[in-house]
């Protein structure tokens, strides 16, 4: 019985060592896959430096009051710019809201190429038409 227990004990730790090696190999492979994806889709991540943006629109401020969930209040700032490094269009969106009596700000950039601009306009017009039907 003692030999069986020793064998199972040793086999179990051999198995754990093998699983850890597989996990390490998978992590290396997944980071390599991420690099390959970045090479395939070079515009998938937006790296914006504020100094490289030329703003081409005035700021658009929206105040939104919602009467559910305790009367949420949002302030949204939108503006349009151009990334001077590569000529991409940038839509800037900053949302300020209160969460647990603290003011929270979320900032997003939407980057698009010149060739995409007409399609973005078409999509926004589709959205407006959809809202008008309701």
Can you describe what's shown?
The chain contains two helices and five strands. Strands 1, 2, 3, 4 and 5 form a five-stranded antiparallel sheet that branches. A hairpin with a 7-residue loop joins strand 2 and strand 3. The longest helix has 39 residues. The radius of gyration is 26 Å and the shape is elongated.
- Tell me the fraction of residues in β-strands, as a range: 25-35%
- Helix percent reads 40-55%
Pattern of helices and strands: HEEEEEH
**Distance linking N and C termini:** 75 Å
Estimate the global geometry from the Cα principal axes.
Answer: elongated
Mean pLDDT: 75
Main beta-sheet annotation: 5 strands, antiparallel
Structural class: alpha+beta
User: How many runs of DSSP E, i.e. beta strands?
Assistant: 5
What is the number of helical segments per DSSP (H or I, 4+ residues)?
A: 2
Uncertain segments of ≥5 residues (pLDDT<50)? 37-44
CA radius of gyration: 26 Å
């Amino acid at each position: 019985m003692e030999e069986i227990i020793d064998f199972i004990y040793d086999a179990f730790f051999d198995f754990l060592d093998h699983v850890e090696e597989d996990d390490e190999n998978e992590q290396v492979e997944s980071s390599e896959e991420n690099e390959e994806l970045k090479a395939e889709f070079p515009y998938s991540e937006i790296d914006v430096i504020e100094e490289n943006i030329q703003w081409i629109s005035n700021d658009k401020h929206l105040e939104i009051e919602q009467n559910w969930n305790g009367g949420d209040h949002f302030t949204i700032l939108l503006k349009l710019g151009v990334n001077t490094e590569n000529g991409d269009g940038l839509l800037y969106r900053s949302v300020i809201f209160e969460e647990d009596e603290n003011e929270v700000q979320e900032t997003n950039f939407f980057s698009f190429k010149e060739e995409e601009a007409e399609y973005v306009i078409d999509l926004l017009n589709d959205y407006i038409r959809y809202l008008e039907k309701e």
